[in-house]
């Protein structure tokens, strides 16, 4: 995924895209075997940072 999208992270099983000039976070659940992408949330950068710091989400590898 990082090969095609530089601004993507994998956090707690979700794929997070930085969009809108890094002003928004698109939180998705991607089911690669079924070739489906589900949009879970769209947050501002501030909302995402607040949640990330409160919950201490765990980053993974893509």
In words, what does this structure look like?
- This protein is an alpha+beta fold and 62 residues long.
- It has one domain.
- The protein is 18% helix and 47% strand.
- It contains one helix and five strands; from the N terminus they run ββββαβ.
- Strands 4-3-2-1-5 form a five-stranded antiparallel beta sheet.
- A hairpin with a 2-residue loop joins β1 and β2.
- It is globular.
- The model has no long low-confidence stretch (mean pLDDT 84).
Q: How do the strands and helices of this protein lay out in sequence?
A:
Elements: E1 8-11, E2 14-19, E3 24-31, E4 36-44, H1 45-55, E5 59-60
Antiparallel strand pairs: 1-2, 1-5, 2-3, 3-4
Summed up, what is this model?
With 62 residues, this protein is an alpha+beta fold.
Helix and strand pattern: EEEEHE
Averaging pLDDT over every residue, what do you get?
84
Q: Please outline the major beta sheet.
A: 5 strands, antiparallel
Residue share in β-strands: over 45%
* Radius of gyration from CA coordinates: 11 Å
Query: Which structural class should the secondary elements be placed in?
Result: alpha+beta
By DSSP, the count of extended strands is 5
Oligomer: single chain
| Unreliable sequence segments | none
Q: Bin the helical content.
A: 10-25%
> What is the number of independent domains?
1
Terminal CA distance: 6 Å
Counting H and I runs of at least 4 residues, what is the number of helices? Answer: 1
- Report the principal-axis shape: globular
């Amino acid at each position: 995924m990082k090969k095609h999208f530089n601004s993507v992270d994998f956090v707690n099983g979700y794929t997070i895209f930085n969009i809108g000039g890094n002003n928004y976070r698109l939180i998705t659940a991607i089911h690669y075997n079924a070739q489906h992408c589900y949009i879970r949330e769209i947050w501002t950068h501030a909302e995402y940072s607040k949640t990330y710091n409160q919950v201490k989400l765990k980053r993974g590898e893509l």
